[in-house]
Design a protein that fits this description.
heterodimer, A: 287 residues, mainly alpha, MetI-like fold, 2 domains, 14 helices, B: 282 residues, two-stranded antiparallel ribbon
């Protein structure tokens, strides 16, 4: 009896230690977000004087003035609009182009190049560091008079996200039971009807997850937004970099801007949580 | 069973053409640029491999290579080890596990530029979050060595969760029976790790390593926002140097050569793991 109690006690201590450890790890992941929030509701004078964890109401009186001032700025509103248009435009175009291609690789036979090689070829595009194509894209867009347009940024973002969509949707189609499609084929349905009416609908959850991830990737893209969209089509990240350049580092505004930038993609990440392992490993690891 | 139909071409051509047009063409164009002396307003002059040769006698370039390699290998090594360790630690039935997973998902998609700027305030020497909590005066961003470490630390903060989530998913695929059976043979946790956990994780380790290394070589946003490559050139990674040479000094030819050398470095690592990648997508 005593021995059992002893083991039980040891188990309890062990799980308590794990709990503490889990909380510490979670705190480290969360702390920067909390800090940004805490900074964003401080009066400018208190940005430097309040130290440590900076708990609102206890260490300082919170204010929403920074948020109001930032959101009322025309440039911020404009860059929000730019970011949304570019992200949504990219996501739609990339899905329209990528999904049929993914279906073709998953369900139709290709020889020379084989299905595997086509997949690898799409995948290999991700290895290319984007900086390699920055200057070529800059010169090409200049040649076509597309510098500083949303269209140029959508085209570039589609290019970098298309392989991602193809590889992931291929896996999504492969995971569907093929019997349904074969039954429909026997019943005389055409290949396009099967794709449109059956496969696409069954793969809808993956499709939505992929779409949301592309939205987040495009929202976060900086390198090309910086080189191509310098004046009229500044996205949120470019706007943020520009504001630091011209006005210096004002911590309170910087925190507001950081939160405006970070919130949409973080929410998207949480929405696709169940899909994230598969998504970020290009389907190689099933989460 | 794979089918055959003319529809397949209609389905695949738009995407294939798009990728061909928008990556192959810029790539070839970039390769051509790297062999020329390109100045806006002047005709391009062919100079052969001169841009590549001058890379090796340019001490800024060599410095960038060293900074990049340190960043990639120190950062990725720590992320991998931490990721595996945390995954093993929390691969048990705990109610807090799903909470932990949710919180650790948050950094993954956080806009890198915003994260970089935010960490300026976190690393700030007087009244910043870390120095405030530690009650210390660590020169995070003004000392060259600390600055490189600061960049690596941001990367670790953002990407350790990635390794953790993937390894956790992989560990959950290991049947409990394996451990039950092993418990009859040994009591040592190290042996369990060495003979069961590690072999089962190995394919995943290679994939994560590949993904992390190729992504880490692309890093641009964090040093751009957090340190602008400084102090001096202490955190000027290759992507930043290529960008500066191209878009600030408008030396398009040399910039293209630098980025192609970066591309070659990345390719070497990918090729080393190519066999494994092909197996996954068979």
């Amino acid at each position: 009896m005593r021995k059992v109690r002893k083991i039980y006690k040891r188990q309890n201590i062990k799980s308590f230690i794990f709990l503490i450890l889990a909380l510490i790890v979670a705190a480290i992941s969360f702390l920067p977000f909390y800090w940004a929030f805490s900074l964003s509701i401080r009066n400018p004078i208190e940005a430097f004087t309040v130290a440590g964890l900076a708990v609102p109401f206890i260490q300082y009186e919170p204010t929403l003035n920074n948020w109001k001032a930032e959101l009322e700025t025309g440039e911020t509103q404009k860059s929000l609009l730019n970011s949304i248009i570019i992200a949504v435009g990219t996501s739609i175009l990339v899905i329209v182009l990528g999904t049929p291609a993914a279906y073709a690789i998953a369900r139709f036979r290709f020889t020379k190049p084989s299905n595997t090689n086509i997949t690898i070829w799409f995948l290999s595009q991700r290895v290319l560091p984007p900086v390699v194509t920055v200057i070529p894209f800059f010169l090409i867009m200049r040649f076509f008079n597309l510098l500083d347009t949303r269209l140029a940024l959508i085209m570039i973002n589609v290019t970098f996200n298309l392989p991602f969509v193809v590889v992931l949707m291929r896996q999504a189609f492969l995971d569907l039971p093929i019997e349904l499609e074969e039954a429909a084929l026997v019943d005389g349905a055409g290949h396009f009807t099967i794709f449109w009416k059956i496969s696409l609908r069954l793969a809808a959850p993956s499709l939505v997850a992929v779409l949301l991830i592309v939205l987040a990737f495009t929202w976060n893209e900086f390198l090309f937004a910086l080189t191509i969209g310098t004046v009229h089509v500044r996205t949120i990240p470019v706007q943020m970099a520009g504001a630091v350049d011209t006005r210096g580092i004002q911590f309170w505004f910087l925190a507001v801007r950081a939160l405006i930038a970070v919130t949409p993609p973080v929410i998207l990440a949480l929405l696709v949580q169940r899909y994230i392992v598969r998504g970020l490993t290009f389907g190689a690891v099933k989460g | 069973m794979l089918r055959d139909n003319k529809l397949k071409l209609l389905f695949i051509w738009p995407a294939a053409m798009w990728v061909l047009a928008f990556t192959l063409f810029p790539l070839i164009y970039g390769l051509r640029l790297s062999l020329y002396n390109v100045k806006i307003g002047f005709p391009d002059v062919f100079i052969g491999l001169k841009n590549y040769i001058s890379f090796f006698s340019d001490h800024y370039a060599i410095n960038s290579v060293i900074v990049t390699l340190i960043f990639v290998f120190v950062g990725v090594a720590i992320e991998m080890v931490l990721g595996i360790l945390l995954a093993i630690l929390f691969n048990r039935k705990m109610q807090i596990r799903s909470f932990l997973r949710t919180i650790m998902t948050m950094p993954l998609f956080a806009t890198p530029i915003a994260v970089g700027f935010l960490f300026i305030t976190i690393y700030y020497e007087e009244g910043g979050l870390i120095n405030g909590l530690l009650n210390a005066k660590i020169p995070w961003l003004s000392n060259p060595n600390w600055a490189l470490f600061a960049i690596i630390l941001v990367d670790i903060w953002q990407w350790t969760p990635f390794c953790f989530l993937i390894f956790l998913a992989a560990l959950q695929g290991v049947p409990d029976d394996y451990y039950e059976a092993a418990k009859l043979e040994t009591k040592s946790g190290w042996n369990m790790f060495r003979y069961i956990t590690f072999p089962m994780l190995q394919p995943t380790i290679i994939i994560v390593l590949l993904l992390r290394i190729t992504e880490a070589f692309k890093i641009f946003d964090i040093p751009f926002s957090l340190t602008t490559g400084g102090p001096g050139t202490a955190t000027q990674v290759l992507t930043m140097y290529a960008y500066r040479v191209g878009m600030r000094f408008f030396n398009f030819g040399y910039s293209s050569a630098i980025s192609f050398l970066l591309f070659i470095i990345v390719m070497v690592f990918v090729m080393a793991m190519f066999k494994r990648i092909k197996q996954v997508y068979q």
